[in-house]
Write a structure and sequence with these properties.
α4 crosses α5, α7 runs antiparallel to α14 and α14 packs parallel to α18. The protein has an 8-stranded antiparallel sheet with strand order 3-2-4-1-10-9-11-15, covered by helices on one side. It has a 7-stranded antiparallel sheet with strand order 5-6-7-8-12-13-14. Strands 19-18-20-21-22 form a 5-stranded parallel sheet, sandwiched between helices. It has 3 domains: 242 residues, Glutamine Phosphoribosylpyrophosphate, subunit 1, domain 1, CATH 3.60.20.10; 204 residues, Rossmann fold, CATH 3.40.50; 148 residues, 3-Layer(aba) Sandwich (Rossmann fold). The chain is an alpha/beta fold. The chain binds 5-amino-5-deoxy-1-O-phosphono-D-mannitol. 5-amino-5-deoxy-1-O-phosphono-D-mannitol binds next to α9 and α16. 5-amino-5-deoxy-1-O-phosphono-D-mannitol (M6R) binds next to α9 and α16.
Length: 610
């Protein structure tokens, strides 16, 4: 989604803003722009396309400005063109504004402004907001008050930055529903959608909460609520190194993150497995053990890849602890008046911790009196702060739009949670030890699973011009099939579907012909023979079989045209190993088809609008 960066201080702001915009590219966008205060005037420079297109436009532009705001736009209202790109300004060009989110009552406000003679250049809801702020500014309010008063009448979600040529020493920032973080420097201040845009300058940050507005000067910040109450904000130190958000020697972030998985899963489980006790220790849940013991039902809410990991989590928690679990798309949960009982626990899973639908599901659950927990990657994100407890997955920054290492870490963390809940509810110590040992062995097994690039490339060569793929699996590998299909769709634009293998005969089998590649995830488990029968059914109809199997399975070689083997593990953790070749398949397929792997069309990394 849109990326926001602002700078006020003593340095030339233009290179800082452009650097910030490049760091925010991963969020997904289709135009970029900046506004600077040059002497007493606001200069707005914006362009449809990539940040590099904006840089080309700025090639001969020289600036002395020490205050400015920058934006990458992911279109919601109006096409991705130069005019709709942010920043937007008011009629006399005294105010410029950038915005992430959606102003839901913009039509009502626009009608009022049109009546007052206001002229609009773009189709965006954002331009309505800048004119609206301007209408309060003209009434003699300063920029902070004008922005606050306008926002108190706004419905919807926003993270905004506002500057004025008449108040050259301040940036006003505010948020509701979309993230914003301040970076505190020495005689300079930064503000951005996420810490990646400011980490090269400072590690001291302040996370804004919903309905908060802040006035930033080069050496101070003052925060209030939209309803005009003063608030004290805590400065926090973030533990993020610049190297973690760079590609290093990899061609793409996605590839780097695929190869990071032995390490990221190790980080997710580090210090949390009690081998001797056959148990797990999760600091974030330590004070909630009684609550967990009382829990009668867990409802997991999430979206996309996190939803797939949640489906594996459902299986793990039900099998290990015997607690009924339901997994809900966060976007559906929030609008269907879910029945929630007082001893239900809502557990939300999100890599970014900022997904609007997931956040809304948490708020819906809280309104109904439920306890809400999180499983989140980004430390300090909204979901981490809005839930009463939770577990960080500690996978490190995930920049590639296609989520990879977050999935394997989320499943590993579900393994720890399942073990903890299971041991609370009568799981024997021997069983606990088997699971604990298996969790510890996962990073080494992931390393082995990564040794499949040659086979993956053969499959890519054979099928790079195909238009459809089917992915089939059972048990925990049904979610693996869904995730494999999502990865392929997202970055190579091949239509792909994931199905439970046994469901195939209820419809999708009609699609099988001698052109259809079918990926079977067929580990040597209790359902092996059943899946082998499904393989026979596809073979009988001429389908092309690709199998993800275990390294001690020789039988499969007789039935599949392409076989990739990964180490054996417990069923619970199969998805962690089986997804590795499927991530690589999606990656190399996208490369072979000339697709932009890290910034696939139309996608955003962190979906902060509904
Ligand atoms: O940050 P979250 O885990 O909440 O994001 C959820 C989805 O938007 C995300 O997983 C999306 O589906 C990815 N593009 C998948 O690769």
């Amino acid at each position: 989604m849109c990326g926001i960066i602002g700078y006020i201080g003593y340095k030339n702001s233009l290179p800082i803003l452009l650097d910030g915009l490049r760091r925010l590219e991963y969020r997904g966008y289709d135009s970029a722009g900046i506004a600077l205060i040059e002497n007493d005037k606001i200069e707005i420079l914006k362009k449809a396309g990539k940040v590099s297109d904006l840089q080309d436009k700025l090639k001969n532009y020289s600036s002395q400005s020490t205050i400015g705001i920058g934006h990458t736009r992911w279109a919601t209202h109006g096409a991705p063109n130069d005019i709709n790109a942010h920043p937007h300004n008011n009629s006399d060009n005294s105010i410029a504004l950038i915005h992430n989110g959606i102003i839901e009552n913009y039509q009502t406000i626009k009608k009022k402004l049109l009546k007052d003679g206001c002229k609009f250049q773009s189709e965006t809801d954002t331009e309505v907001l800048v004119h609206f702020i301007s209408s309060f500014y003209k009434n003699g309010n300063d920029l902070f008050t004008a922005t606050r008063l306008a926002l108190s009448e706004v419905e919807g979600a926003y993270a905004i930055l506002v500057i004025s040529a008449k108040e050259k020493n301040k940036i006003i920032a505010a948020r509701k529903g979309s993230p914003l973080v301040l970076g505190i420097g020495e005689n300079e201040m930064f503000v951005a959608s996420d810490a990646s845009a400011l980490i090269s300058y400072t590690n001291k940050v302040v996370y804004l909460d919903d309905e908060e507005i802040v006035q930033l000067t080069s050496n101070n910040f003052v925060t209030k609520t939209i309803t005009d109450e003063e608030i004290e904000k805590q400065i926090e130190k973030i533990d993020l190194e610049i190297g973690q958000i760079e590609k290093n020697n990899f061609d793409h972030f996605m590839l780097k993150e695929i190869y990071e998985q032995p390490e990221s899963v190790k980080n997710s489980i580090r210090g949390r497995v009690l081998l001797e006790e056959g148990d797990a220790k999760l600091g974030g849940l330590q004070d909630f053990h009684d609550q967990l013991k009382k829990t009668k039902r867990i409802i997991i809410t999430s979206c996309g890849t996190s939803w797939h990991a949640s489906l594996v989590g459902e299986y793990i928690i039900e099998q290990m602890a015997g607690i009924p679990v339901e997994v809900e798309y966060a976007s559906e949960f929030r609008y269907r008046s879910p029945v929630i009982n007082s001893d239900d626990l809502i557990w939300s899973v999100s890599q970014s911790g900022e997904t609007a639908d997931t956040l809304a599901s948490i708020r819906e659950a809280k309104n109904k009196g439920a306890k809400t927990f999180g499983i989140v990657n980004v430390v300090g994100s909204s979901i981490a702060r809005e839930t009463s407890a939770g577990v960080y997955i500690h996978a490190g920054p995930e920049i590639g739009v296609a989520s990879t290492k977050a999935f394997t870490s989320q499943v590993a963390v579900f393994g720890l949670i399942g073990l903890l809940l299971g041991r609370q509810r009568g799981m024997q110590i021997d069983q606990g030890r088997i699971i604990a040992n298996e969790i510890i062995s996962l990073p080494e097994k992931i390393k082995k699973a990564l040794n499949c690039v040659d086979q993956v490339k053969k499959i890519v060569d054979e099928f790079k011009n195909t238009s459809n793929f089917l992915f089939l699996g059972r048990g925990t590998n049904f979610p693996t099939a869904l995730e494999g299909a999502l990865k392929l769709k997202e970055i190579s634009y091949i239509h792909a579907e994931g199905y439970p293998a046994a469901e195939m005969k209820h419809g999708p089998i009609a699609l099988i012909d001698d052109k259809m590649p079918v990926v079977f995830i067929v580990p040597k488990d209790n359902l092996y023979d059943k899946v082998m029968s499904n393989i026979q059914e596809v073979r009988a109809r001429g389908g092309r079989i690709i199998a993800i199997a275990n390294d001690d399975d020789d039988e499969i070689d007789n039935f599949a045209e392409f076989v990739i083997k990964v180490p054996r593990t417990l069923n619970y953790f199969g998805p962690i190993l089986n997804i590795i070749p499927l991530q690589l398949l999606a990656y190399y397929m996208a490369i072979a088809r000339g697709c932009n792997v890290d910034q696939p069309r139309n996608l955003a990394k962190s979906v902060t609008v509904e």
